[in-house]
Amino acid sequence: MFSKKQLIKLNTRFLVSIVTVTIFLVSCEKIISVDLKTEAARLVVDASINWKKGTAGNQQIIKLTTTAGYNQNTIPVASGAIVTVTNSANTIFIFTEESASGIYVCNNFIPVINENYKLKIVYNGETYISEESLKLTPKISDVEQENDLGFNNDEIGIKINFKDTANQRNFYMMRIDFAESPYPEYQVLDDQFSDGNKITWPYSHIKLATGKILKFTQFGISESYSNYMRILIAASTGSNNGPFQVTPVKVRGNILNQTNTSNYPLGYFRLSETSDSVYTIN
User: Fold this and answer.
1) How far apart are CA 72 and CA 36, in angstroms?
2) DSSP state of 152
3) pTM of the entire predicted model
4) Most buried by CB count within 10 Å: which residue of 81, 127, 149, 197?
5) Measured between alpha carbons, how far is 37 from 4 in angstroms, rounded to an integer?
């Protein structure tokens, strides 16, 4: 048993220890400024030529921006470029910039399935080039809905169906727009084991419910673009590897800097026929 005097001494020492540790911890707080090195800006090219089935496809848009620093809140536009696309007959389609916006528009483009096109961009004294062909896509035939999925039978599943074009190797991309998702979702597949047969895109989202609207857009794409998108999708989702995700890296597309190869751009030149469908959950 401790005497009253001993207890007072022990309590005093305990309080002094707490105060000392607290002062030590507070004194260890220090704001560390990390010097993030920002590399020189690179050109970013969004040259996606999309020809929706049943339309003329004459109006097309190419967007040019540049990379920005980590702490920069706005995306810089690449204004003042000369942008053209040329087909195999040497017909030149000029993309004219709208009001220094980095958005370049062509109103007389002629889309032709399997036609070969060459992109040329002259920006800041450097020339960027690329070449790609326009790929077809079948029409989305129907959309199926399956209820009572998931662990609690409370999840809805969707199947988007189409019939593959037979006797040729085809690659496809699907874009899903859903208001409850902060950004569009993408999937890619090919017909290696389904040539000429029915192919299905599966889709599900925890917030699917009666009355919710989904928009599906299917693209015909090249094998190289399919590989490019697989890498992008894996990098953006971490390949579902949890805490052991692969560190995101720059994914280079099919556009080359002809003037200075070390100053390569980011982005891709793609031409696709598209088919879309809007579906309401019931």
Assistant:
1) 12
2) T
3) 0.83
4) 81
5) 63
